[in-house]
């Protein structure tokens, strides 16, 4: 189904929370190095709070600059090391995706995008059925869905696939 993406250097897998991005990444991009902001947030929370887990309610706008700079430094490092990279984040708007495309192009890497487009009703249902540690505030999910901009080739992607569920 997505085997044609295996020859790319960078994969951006985007969509709302609870859309199935993580399962897709595990199934098709296991050989890629994976970067995910929530896991960076988790690492920071674990380190700074003596092992306590990060939950969506812990989101802190003041720490986001640290999260994003860590993510970008790691992304740049992996590209410099000629590693294949998959970015597993919401990346719901053109603006959110721009930095990845620009960096990949500066390193002369092929970049693809898979957008997992799930109806908001399904996202909210999955969120309600998830464990407390994974639950997102409904307003966050609704806001993300409202801002959604499907990717197109004009952004600079070499390959795009929109998966409707």
Structural key phrases:
165 residues, alpha/beta, 5-stranded parallel beta sheet, 16% strand, globular
Question: What layout of secondary structure does this protein have?
Answer:
Layout (H helix, E strand, L loop, with lengths): L9 E6 L5 H8 L4 E3 L1 H12 L12 H20 L4 E4 L5 H13 L4 E7 L2 H10 L8 H10 L11 E6 L1
Parallel strand pairs: 1-3, 1-4, 2-3, 4-5
Helix pairs in contact: 2-3, 5-6
Specify the CATH class: Alpha Beta
Order of the strands making up the biggest sheet: 2-3-1-4-5
User: By helix and strand content, what is the structural category?
Assistant: alpha/beta
Architecture per CATH nomenclature, i.e. the level-2 architecture? 3-Layer(aba) Sandwich
For the termini, the CA-CA separation is 14 Å
Find the CATH superfamily: P-loop containing nucleotide triphosphate hydrolases
**SSE order, as H and E?**
EHEHHEHEHHE
Range of helix content: 40-55%
pLDDT < 50 runs, ≥5 residues:
none
- Which topology does CATH recognise? Rossmann fold
Outline the structure in words:
It is a single chain. This protein is of the alpha/beta class and 165 residues long. The chain has a single domain (3-164), classed as 3-Layer(aba) Sandwich (Rossmann fold), CATH 3.40.50. The chain is built from six helices and five strands. The protein has helices at 21-28, 37-48, 61-80, 94-106, 120-129, 138-147; strands spanning 10-15, 33-35, 85-88, 111-117, 159-164. The protein has a five-stranded parallel sheet, sandwiched between helices. The protein starts with 9 loop residues before the first strand and ends with a strand.
């Amino acid at each position: 189904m997505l085997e044609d993406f295996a020859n790319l250097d960078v994969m951006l897998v985007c969509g709302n929370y609870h859309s199935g991005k993580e399962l897709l990444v595990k199934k098709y991009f296991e050989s890629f190095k994976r970067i995910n902001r929530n896991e960076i947030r988790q690492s920071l929370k674990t380190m700074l709070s003596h092992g306590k887990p990060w939950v969506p309610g812990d989101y802190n706008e003041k720490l986001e600059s640290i999260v994003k700079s860590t993510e970008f430094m790691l992304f740049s490092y992996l590209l410099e090391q000629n590693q294949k990279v998959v970015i597993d984040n919401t990346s719901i708007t053109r603006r959110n995706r721009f930095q990845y495309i620009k960096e990949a192009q500066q390193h002369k890497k092929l970049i693809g995008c898979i957008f997992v487009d799930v109806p908001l009703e399904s996202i909210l249902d999955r969120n309600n059925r998830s464990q407390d540690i994974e639950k997102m505030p409904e307003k966050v999910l609704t806001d993300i869905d409202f801002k959604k901009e499907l990717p197109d080739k004009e952004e600079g992607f070499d390959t795009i696939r929109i998966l409707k569920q």
